[in-house]
Each structure stands twice: as structure tokens, then as C-alpha cells.
Amino acid sequence: MQLIKKILSYLYLAKFSCLLFFLSSSFVTAKSSSPSIVIPLEMVKSLPSIYFSDNPSCGQFDVAYKESLYEVLKSDIEESHHFDLTMGKIDIEPLVSGPLKNSAKELAAFSADLVLLPKIASKDLTLKIYEPRFHQTSLIGTIPLSGNLDEDHQKIHLLFDLMHLKVFRQEGIASSKILFCKKTEEIDGEWISDIYEVQQDGTHLKKITSSQNYLITPLMVPKTRTENSYDYIYVSYEMGQPKIFKANSSSTLTVPLLQIRGNQLLPALSPVGDKIAFICDASGRTDLFLQQFHPQKGVIGKPIQLFSKGNSTQASPTFSPCGSKLAFVSDKDGSPKIYILEIIDAIRSQKTPHVRLLTINHKESTCPSWSPDGKKIAFSAMNEGYRQIWVMDLDKKIEMPITNGPIDKENPSWAPDSIHLVYNTTGKESQIYTIDIVKQKPVKIPTGDGISHFPSWEQR
User: Fold this and answer.
1) What range does the domain containing 399 cover?
2) Same domain, 346 and 291
3) Would residue 30 count as lying in a domain?
4) Which end of the chain has fewer CB atoms within 10 angstroms, the N or the C?
5) What stretches of 200-313 adopt beta strand conformation (E)?
6) Is the residue at 26 inside a domain?
7) pLDDT tens-digit readout, 248-274
């Protein structure tokens, strides 16, 4: 029990761009033969300018409804930090559908890299993009509008993600989800908690478990999200000891995942979902383990002990994007610090592989999270008396805090775009926040009453 308390103490100490979002929608359609717009993100030195054309058509809806939808699309564009947006005051589409007049060429829209052409006709919203340099128009997609604002907002998020894919060959995060746990009440002196999901913009909060136990560290299994459900793993205390379980968001069925004795904590999934790293004390010490895994078939073979050292505690593993490395926390040299190991070397070395110290400048650094683009690791460490979220640039070997203020923060988790993060504050008012590494302005996610913690951003 002391070992487990030590691991959990590390959790409470603390726990620009490749997009891996998997889009699946039966109501977004686009012609596969439409011209391709490609602006590779790694080649972008300045943000491509995009002009939002103001088409007056509202179809079967009123102006306020149209403006609400366009406001969501505008927000998605701005929050992606991949476009320099200008909101237009005129409808450009009639000028790009035929020969351009000389006067039209002088408009601000035609000096932009891209012109966004949204149009509502009847109950459908169609989105096109015009490229002034090439006098070329491309269809992004068409969505049927229901008249239900919440439902249609979700469709707008999907449409933006499709637009981002069209422009950058990498999809956006507008429709992505965040999982987290919320402690809601005490029963017989014991806390219980459940797992919730929420849209990345803080809307559509949904409780996905109804437990009488303590649940922590939920993770969505990559590549399993469909239109209505997804698989996820988490840790539950329902069997007395903490164990890793698997479930589906549309079902109440839960399945213990690993056949290994001892306490199981802090699972991490590889980006393609073929491996699970976790912490277990089956050998009497809190060691780092690896389990081969298939998203549909489940575990494959027996767990492998990757790293073990006497009188030390391991915690919080996180995979590199290719799944060949792990960053994790260990206090093997005294205070908790973050180390990196090569998985294949760890397997060959039988529990004592060479590891590289990452957080040289921090005595107590915890909760690492490897960015999907592989270039950054976020973690929690002290800064001016409080634990803050830091980001380390692995190529430039520099690090900086991206949060501040008189409250501790922990558990950073990257969005698929490697620009946004989610984390939680600590204490009685523990809440969930998102932040981006561009503006570094935290945004609180409304989660209601209770202690919200252990957030994880969907990876797809």
C-alpha cells in the first residue's frame, strides 16, 4: 500500500504541427475529384491568410441561426492557429464563378491566400474554398442542417476539420473529445468518481460511467471512434486493488484488461494503439511494464517488465509518436525526474536498460506527455513556488512554463495538433483547462460540481 501511495503522490505532484484526427461522418460529403489545396504546415513561415466571404443566403433558417453557425466556424479557424482570418463584408462567390472584373481584383479578398465560401441553400450548408492565385475553387463538403443548434454546431466542427485536411493534409481538432474523471461524493468515507467526456470547446458534457467505485486516468483507444461510440481504458478500484479495465462509451460492460497480479496504475497507449505501458508492483516494487495490445482483439501475450530498480518508484509513462520510446518518471536518483528509454533496448536488457535523463533542470518533474509531432514533451514542475505546466522542445533543447499563477497544475495531455494541451488544477477546486502554446491563455472547461482531474485528449 505504501508503494501505491508513493505513486499517487507523484500524480498529485503533477501528472508547431502534425494532426492525427480520424474523421468519420456520414453527413459530410465532398467530391473526390475536386482540386487539391495543399499548404504543408512544416513549410509555412507565416500564417496563410483566409477571407471569410459573407454570403447573405440563409436557406430555410433566419439570419441569427446562420450567424451562429458562422461564428462556430470562425472560432474553429481562429483557435486552430493555422490561419490569419479576415471576416468579409461582401459576398465574393458571384465574382469567382465567372470572369473577374478589374475592380473585383482590387478587393481585399483577392489578396488573400484563400477565400472561404460558405453558403446555406434550403437546409444544406455547402463550404468551398477559392484560391485567387490560381482562380480555382474546391469543394470542402456539404452538411444537412437540422435546425438543432447543438447538433449543427457539431457538424460545423466536422466541416472545419475536413477543411483543415483539404488545406494542410492534416485534419483539425475542432470535433475532438476530452475524457476526464470527476469525484462527486463520498460513500462510507470513500470517494467515488466517474468518467466524463466533453467537446474540446467545452460543450456537450456527458457522463459515460455510473460507478459506485473510484475511477481514474481514462484514455480513449486510438482508431476506435465511430459516429456514436469509442473504446477506452481506465483504472478502477472496484476489485479492491487498482486494475486496468476496458469499456465502450455506448455500453455498461467493463472488462479487466490485464492478467497480472498486484496494483496496476497509470496506463499509457501507444499512438496506434498496439501497446500499453503501465506501472505495477507485482514484483514487490513499482516497476514499468509493457503489454502488447490490439484495439479490437485485446491483449496479446504476457506483460514485459521494462524497467526496475531497487528502492525506487516508476510512474507516468508516455509513448513517442512512433511507439519506439517511452518517457517516464522515476526517483531512482532521489527526487522524481523524467527519463527516456528505447523500448527494444529495454526488452533486450531485461529490466535494467540505459535511460536518458530529460529534466536536468528540475528536481521534481512529473506527468510527462509526448506531443503527437514528436517534437515536444509537456510535464509538470515547480516554477516560482507552484507546480506549472512546462513544455520542452526536444530539438532545440529548451524548455519554458506555459502556465503561471498561484495554483498547482498537473496531468498535461496533448491534442492531436501538438499545439493545444489539456490539464487540471489541484486541490478542492480542481478543474480542467485547455491552453495552447501560441497564446498561452488558459480556458476553463465547465464540468459542474465535483473535483475534476486526469484529463486526456483524444488521439486518433
Assistant:
1) 2-21+176-457
2) yes
3) no
4) N
5) 206-207, 215-220, 231-239, 241-248, 254-256, 264-269, 275-280, 287-294, 298-307
6) no
7) 999 999 999 998 999 999 999 999 999
